[in-house]
Design a protein that fits this description.
Helices cover about 25% and strands about 20% of the residues. The protein is of the alpha/beta class. The radius of gyration is 41 Å and the shape is flat. Among the domains are: about 240 residues, Ribonuclease Inhibitor (Leucine-rich repeat, LRR (right-handed beta-alpha superhelix)); about 200 residues, Leucine-rich repeat, LRR (right-handed beta-alpha superhelix) (Alpha-Beta Horseshoe), CATH 3.80.10; about 100 residues, Phosphorylase Kinase, domain 1 (2-Layer Sandwich); about 190 residues, Transferase(Phosphotransferase), domain 1 (Orthogonal Bundle). The longest helix has about 35 residues. Its EC number is 2.7.11.1.
């Protein structure tokens, strides 16, 4: 017997069990030692032996107590271990679950601190423990916390768990098999995550499950038969996954408990099993959107408890039983849309007085509608569209009169049927709560009843594709809530009511293919929510109201084609900046196409054919970079075809039957004869051979003019060169009395370097021996200029064919002309000339950086050596990285805060940070840089055009979030890039690393680990080796301490250094610009970290 163990046990172990077993508390002395406890028992036994007043019952109780106490004393250690282990296991399981979380943006588990014993784990957020067993977790509720993780297998150790609620997160990977250990589990909700894999078959061991919801995931495989053994389950939600195979027949085994079964939106096939009819308590059945076929078992219609019955969008067929309203008396929603059911709609539905939703859409039902639909007093949605209902006769719509009694009705969808007759005037007496009235594609004739204006709750009115005639009731303009009005393909006449201007919530207005006349009312310009306006194929006249063109809300269609509109196209067309398709074809519009058309930057289709437009094709059309279809045929356009049309990604171009002349371009859309047409333009020449146009012969007169132009250009160029030569000569003469040139002035030594010189300097731009790298807008070569063969240079040749290259060259020249700093790459000279083939040539010449760029040092093999130009292994120690971090911060601080006009780099990344012989960092590549127009505001936005261009440039992973959403360039954007660069330098991971997915990025990854005790988990592995070294040269460590103490102090200081630099990187790369520090603060912080590491104080 273990006496010491017994003492511990007696202090709250077995005594507590004795109490819970029903033994009197007086029989256990919790304050006594083990020896006295034994004496107490012995004394009581003597009393029992010699006292004749003891009742028999007391003797039995004492006897049982003695057995229990002796048993506990003999196994005291084991009992204690079980209790402590239970406490430990639950805590460890929770910690293991937390460790599996890769992202916790809401800080939901911030209280889950394994190192903080002051807060018991039962008080952690989302954790609930048992009252009876205070150290056992019974509920874990972390729903809607935006957690990114997989479910830890250790969850199976929470054996007392009854509720596991993890829905609405980003849980990934498979559901662990260990879930099957939770035999006490009653509620499991893993819905709305991204779990994959199959359902663990051993989930059937959770025999107490009542509620199982794993819907809206990416689960695959078949539904396991074992689910049929969950005899207590009431709710089973499996919808919105990728399950395949058949519905298990075993589900019929849970007939006494199951009330809700959701299998919709999967890939289940074959037939519906008869066994489902055994679910006599079933209230909710949803098998929507699968691949089920065959006939619905007739017994399924006999489950009288059913309230919701949905088999929509399968491949089922058959008829609906005539007595459906009697066998399903409690039905509230009956939906079988999207199948192949036939027959008539049973009149017995009228007996289902609780029916709210009846959806039989897209089947093959025939006949007339039940005359007693009005008995559905609770009816909300009636969807019978796309069948063959009705006879085309006059009384087909009489059933609408009975719907007046349905005061809760929201939706009537009867489109695409065979209903005939006139709309009854009583339609205006339907409930004012009616939201949708859809009667399109029938054979309804007559006029639109004026009473329809009383349906003030209408949001969607669709009467398209009928035989309606007469005018459009002006009262429709009173339907203030109307969002969709579609009256196309009827025989409506008269004018478009000006009252439509009252419909400020209108989103779609479609009146095409009618006989409408008169002009377009300017009041439509008041429809401030309008996204689509289609008035095509009518007889409208007059000019296009500028108020309509000023509707900036128009984003989908503006189609006024096939009318008789006249006059010019107003310049206000440029206000349609969000419009997708503009169709003004087949009208009588005249004048020139306004250049403001180039401001419609969202256009994908532009159709101006069949008008009287004249003049040139405006070059501004080439600004429409998203344009896919352009038709300007059958106008009176003249002039040449703009060559810049080649740059558009057009799939269709029609310029036929105009008066165009000159050369037909040969590239872009003009390379595919089936994609464009230039027929009927007799003065065109050239183009691809398939056009069979004559060659473009330049006349002598034109050739003479061309020669004169060339001579004038040559004279002007020679004059400018002479002026430059004189200025240089004057400067040299003046500078003889000045000190020798510094490195900052070196660029002036090589003014006017020629293409030939650069060709020789780079061995003919040899890619095998001289190529250093390739960037966004060109290639960089190593070269030796003849003026100074002792210093190699880097020649950046601009690829002018690349879109934006010329702009990049000018931006870089403008920037480099204004800046001087030791940590910025110095320019030697530049070249703007022509090559030997007569092509334009531009290049920048920089000082050569012998140690390449930072990217190669961070991500190349540590043992690699870059030939003679780099004689040391590519390994950056911590102090070198800190120096580089300071260098880059210094450069950015200069650009942002010390230049006359603040400069934004816009493309900071490791490959644009170059290292010289001494590993001093120089920031280069200013091809995307921008000047801020207002130096007093370092966050001043650029103009709109610049903002839009810069928003799509830069490098993925380093671009600040606001740029990706169209934000203007700002110094905060550079700060974000600098923060990402810092994190990459010290973690060794690119921001585009494969590990960063599903919401995890380098910022959040670093943020989760920026504590000294966790920093080693994320830092570059090459820096970890330094943690094991003793910094014997560290002057801040006293030499009277032991070597181990010195090592520990050094390791702690290095951890603190790494933690501090990661914290700066996280702060700089904050998602919101307002949360970032500026570079003035950043350089101070980084310099302080460097000083700390080298021996100073922060």
């Amino acid at each position: 017997m273990n006496v010491s163990g017994c003492r511990e046990f007696n202090g709250g172990g077995c005594g507590a069990q004795a109490l819970s077993s029903g033994y009197p508390k007086s029989m256990i002395d919790h304050n006594s030692k083990c020896s006295s406890f034994g004496g107490y028992v012995y004394t009581n036994l003597l009393g029992i032996k010699y006292s004749i007043s003891v009742h028999v019952m007391e003797m039995k109780l004492l006897h049982r107590s003695l057995i229990l106490i002796i048993s506990c004393m003999s196994v005291s250690v084991n009992c204690l271990i079980v209790i402590n282990r239970a406490k430990s296991n639950d805590r460890l399981a929770l910690v293991a679950f937390k460790n599996g979380i890769t992202e916790d943006p809401l800080g939901a588990l911030s209280s889950w601190n394994n190192n903080n014993d002051s807060l018991h784990f039962c008080k952690w957020k989302g954790v609930t423990c048992s009252h009876r067993h205070p150290n056992r977790v019974t509920r874990l509720d972390l729903q809607s916390k935006s957690l990114v993780c997989s479910i830890s297998p250790h969850i199976g150790n929470l054996s007392f768990l009854t509720d596991l609620i993890l829905n609405s997160n980003s849980l990934n990977k498979e559901i662990p098999q260990q879930i099957g250990r939770l035999f006490r589990l009653k509620r499991l909700n893993l819905s709305r995550n991204i779990l994959d894999g199959e359902i663990p078959s051993n989930i059937s061991r959770c025999s107490n499950l009542i509620h199982l919801d794993i819907s809206q995931n990416n689960l695959v495989g078949s539904i396991p038969d074992e689910l049929g053994y969950l005899s207590n389950v009431k709710v089973l939600w499996l919808q919105y996954n990728n399950f395949s195979g058949e519905i298990p027949t075993s589900l019929g085994n849970v007939s006494t408990s199951l009330t809700h079964l959701g299998l919709g939106y999967n890939n289940l096939d074959r037939i519906i099993p008869n066994t489902l009819s055994q679910l006599t308590r079933l209230k909710f059945l949803d098998i929507t959107s699968n691949k089920l076929s065959g006939i619905v078992p007739s017994s399924l219609y006999n489950i009288s408890s059913l309230e919701v019955f949905s088999l929509m969008f399968n491949q089922l067929h058959g008829t609906i039983p005539f007595d459906i309203g009697l066998t399903l008396p409690n039905i509230t929603s009956f939906s079988v849309s999207g199948n192949s059911f036939t027959g008539i709609i049973p009149n017995s539905f009228a007996n289902s007085s609780s029916l709210k939703v009846l959806q039989l859409y897209k089947n093959n039902f025939v006949g007339s509608l039940p005359y007693n639909l009005g008995h559905f007093n609770n009816l909300i949605r009636l969807n019978l569209g796309e069948n063959d209902l009705g006879s085309g006769r006059a009384n087909d719509l009489d059933f609408i009169n009975s719907l007046i009694n349905c005061t809760s009705l929201k939706v009537i969808f009867l489109g695409v049927n065979n209903f005939g007759g006139m709309l009854p005037s009583s339609i205006g007496n339907l409930t004012t709560d009616l939201d949708t009235l859809h009667l399109a594609e029938n054979q309804i004739y007559g006029s639109i009843p004026a009473g329809i204006q009383d349906l003030v709750g209408l949001r969607s009115l669709v009467l398209a594709g009928n035989l309606l005639a007469g005018g459009i009731p002006p009262g429709i303009g009173n339907l203030q809530n109307l969002g969709v009005l579609d009256l196309r393909r009827n025989k409506l006449s008269g004018s478009v009511p000006s009252s439509f201007g009252n419909l400020t919530r209108l989103i779609e207005l479609t009146l095409s293919f009618n006989i409408l006349t008169d002009s377009i009312p300017p009041s439509i310009g008041n429809c401030e929510s309008l996204q689509s306006l289609v008035l095509s194929s009518n007889r409208l006249t007059g000019s296009i109201p500028k108020q309509v063109l000023e509707l900036s809300s128009l984003s989908r269609f503006l189609n006024l084609g096939n009318n008789s509109l006249t006059g010019p196209l107003p310049v206000e067309v440029g206000s349609l900046k969000n419009l997708g398709i503009l169709d003004l074809s087949e009208n009588k519009l005249s004048g020139q196409i306004p250049s403001s058309i180039g401001e419609c930057l969202s256009l994908t289709g532009l159709f101006l054919d069949g008008n009287y437009f004249q003049g040139n094709i405006p070059p501004a059309i080439t600004f429409l970079r998203g344009l896919e279809s352009l038709s300007l045929s059958r106008n009176n356009l003249s002039g040449i075809i703009p060559e810049s049309l080649e740059n558009l990604k057009l799939s269709k171009l029609n310029l036929s039957f105009n008066n165009l002349e000159g050369v037909v371009p040969r590239y872009g859309v003009f390379m595919n004869i089936s994609a464009f047409s230039v027929d009927g333009n007799r003065k065109l020449c050239g183009g691809i051979p398939d056009l069979k146009l004559p060659n473009c012969n330049i006349s002598r007169k034109k050739r003479h003019v061309k020669i004169i132009i060339i001579i004038v250009i040559v004279i002007v160029v020679l004059f400018l060169i002479s002026v430059m030569f004189l200025l240089v000569l004057y400067w040299r003469t003046k500078s003889e009395t000045k000190p020798p040139l510094t490195a900052l002035d070196v660029g002036n030594q090589y003014m006017g370097v020629s293409y030939n010189e650069l060709l020789k300097a780079t061995n003919g731009f040899d890619r095998s021996t001289n190529l250093l790298g390739v960037g966004s807008f060109g290639s960089v070569y190593k070269g030796i200029l003849s003026q100074d063969e002792s210093k190699p240079v880097a020649v950046k040749v601009i690829q002018l064919q690349q879109r934006g290259a010329t702009k990049s060259f000018m931006a870089e020249c403008d920037t480099l002309r204004e800046i001087r700093h030791r940590n910025l790459l110095k320019i030697v000279t530049c070249c703007s000339s022509i090559d030997f083939q007569g092509n334009s040539f531009k290049a920048l010449v920089f000082e050569f950086m012998a140690n390449g760029n930072l990217d190669n040092w961070l991500h190349s093999d540590a043992s690699s050596v870059d030939s003679d130009d780099q004689l040391q292994p590519k390994n950056l120690t911590l102090d070198r990285r800190l120096n580089i971090a300071v260098d880059v911060a210094s450069a950015l601080n200069y650009l942002h805060h010390e230049c006359q006009s603040p400069i934004i780099h816009c493309d900071l990344k490791p490959s644009n940070v170059l290292l010289d012989d001494d590993l001093i960092a120089h920031v280069g590549d200013f091809g995307l840089s921008k000047f801020l127009s207002n130096p007093s505001s370092y966050s001043q936005h650029l103009n709109e055009q610049d903002a839009s261009s810069i928003a799509i440039k830069g490098s993925i992973g380093y671009i600040s979030p606001e740029y990706g959403m169209g934000g203007a360039a700002s110094t905060e954007g550079d700060v974000y890039s600098y923060g990402i660069l810092l994190l990459e330098m010290f973690t060794g991971k690119r921001p585009t690393d494969d590990m960063f997915k599903d919401g995890l990025d380098i910022h959040n990854f670093s943020k989760m680990h920026m504590l000294p005790d966790r920093i080693e988990e994320i830092v570059d592995s090459r820096l970890l080796s330094e943690l094991g070294e003793v910094h014997n040269d560290d002057e801040t460590i006293s030499y009277d301490v032991s070597a181990n103490e010195r090592r520990n102090i050094a390791r702690d200081k290095m951890r603190q250094t790494l933690t501090s630099i990661i914290q700066i990187g996280v702060k700089c790369s904050s998602k919101l610009p307002s949360d970032r520090i500026n570079m003035s603060k950043a350089i101070l912080d980084v310099q302080a970290v460097k000083n700390l590491f080298l021996g100073g104080e922060m």
